[in-house]
Design goal:
The structure holds two protein chains of two kinds. By secondary structure, chain A is mostly helical. Chain A contains 15 helices and two strands. In chain B, 35% of the residues lie in helices and 28% in strands. Chain B contains ten helices and twelve strands. Chain B has one domain (4-281): P-loop containing nucleotide triphosphate hydrolases (Rossmann fold, 3-Layer(aba) Sandwich). In chain B, the strands form three sheets. A six-stranded mixed β-sheet of chain B has the order 6-7-8-3-9-10, with helices on both faces. In chain B, α4 packs antiparallel against α5. The chains are: A mainly alpha, B alpha/beta. At the A-B interface, α10 and α11 of A face α2, β6 and α5 of B.
Chain lengths: 345, 282
Amino acid sequence: MFSNLRSIQLVLMLLMVLFIGLTILGVLQGPADITLTNIWAILKQALFSTSAANIPNWQSSIILDVRLPRVIIALFAGASLALCGLVMQGMFRNPLASPSVLGVSSGASLGAVIAIYLGASLVSAWAIPLFAFIGAGISLSIVYRVASNRGQTSVATLLLSGVAMSALNVAATSLLLALSLSNWDVARMIIYWTMGGLDGRTWDHVLIILPIVLSGFVLLLFYSKQLDLLLLGEQHALSVGVDVRRTRRNLLIISTAMVGASVSVVGGIGFIGLVVPHIMRLLLGPSHRYLLAACLFAGAITLLGADLFLNSFFSEQAIPLGVVTAALGAPFFLFLLIKQRFVLS
Amino acid sequence: MSPLSCFNLAFSYNKKPLLADINLDFKSGQFVGLIGANGAGKSTLLQLLLGLIKQQSGSVALNGLEIHAQKRRDIAKQLAFVPQSIELPYAFTVQALVAMGRNPYLGPFELETAKDKKIIEQAMLKTDIAHLKERMVNTLSGGEKQRVIIARALAQQAPTILLDEPIASLDICHQIETLQLIQSLSKSGKLALTALHDLNLAASYCDRLILIGQTHAGSVKTIIADGSPEQVLTRENLANCFSIEADIIKTNDKISLANIKPIKANSQQQNCETHSTTTTAY
């Protein structure tokens, strides 16, 4: 839509402003009433270790140990899902690809549940993300092998193999849950984990998601040109000097690591990876030089926005985050499908 | 040193041998046409020469060095390719697409320099698409798209350019223009190797033709003839490889075919029918 540089800069600026604004709002807003001056004092105290006068302990722990990690996790999980969607859409040369549609998120969930079932999660906090990464990686490579034939992917095979992969992953997850019911401690952990969302997330979770998503983003920046070239197809990309096989393998590893990290922290949240890259591409054009940064901000904004929306209007109903993203994303997905049908016929 | 050559190349797909005994040597400044019936392996041979697929035996040498031992980036500086199908799911501008030809010369965060921009501009002028540079590629006609892809290959500034049926989707005027463009490239010292379907156009523009097809023995394809259009387009070769009969007319050193008729003879008809059944099976 906007191809000139000025409007691209404008969109990026706007995203950044929204990003900062929502972050501040996320810290300010919550079920507990804490005054603005107190929040400011608490943050100042945490940052510069100045001693602050008469702030109740419960207030500073709500800000520092509840709201702050929650906001950071929402930002980075959203960013990660959007970036992975962007990379997958580019790699498969198909606007319908995304972590949830291709069964990558459910693969990560299965991996995480296996980690809990085997008791590995008790040994190390990194067991769940590691197993999630492996699960996501296996799912994505299978879907990729099935769906691409010499660099071409057909929409039908791609979606069907994604559906089949998801079904298999979900079935295996249910099976593990059923098997674990004899051991209630394990079953409870699995059930609690599969609910996902942002409740009760701590700095431990931040330490998992933040380094992986940030380093993933930086690595993806190095691939922005190759991602553009891959959009033209394997033969074009090879012809202008892209080592397609290696590039694809590296992109697969980076994006599965990011999906693994976000799924192991917040669970499978659908459709952000589908919708956000799409809207950004409509606004900014297909060049990944801008799309990567735009998706980082927009994904973060979307997930944090959805969380804030639920917290302010439905705080008593405890509606899962995935419901909001699906309510917005699923109709959009159907719309894309209809649009593609017209293009294909 | 020859810019491109191959030695004893053999390739099988799904354990079925497709090509065997391919020996070729190219010189700079040649315009070479690659001809053969549908399914003769023209595209496969081009992809082997580009190192896009790997042969089971034999070798491909680019500037005397084995192609699979070289980095894609370095290969791209020597060898440009214009693929057959152009499918662009996302909208790039013409200029952005032509600029992608500069990729082998630029690092991951480097922008095009003034020199690169000049090369891009010239590539667009040469292919007559400069007036389209702000347009989105997916809104162009087939002929315009083809010229954009050729411009991208030119921007690569490679001494060798391979094209897979570049004129298949063009009208006759753009077909001639494209062939003239390729011819001018070869006159300026580049090696151009082009898969072509139209034998008359191949005969009138190419300096050298390579005919691939099957020998009498089996289904494996190999080089049947390699030489000037007059040496390659003989009645015998036309009958064996294309199952056609034609009058071969010679005017001013150029040959052309007229009165082209399919051959109904027994063995050839069988040949023809196996072809048609394989195509319907696809």
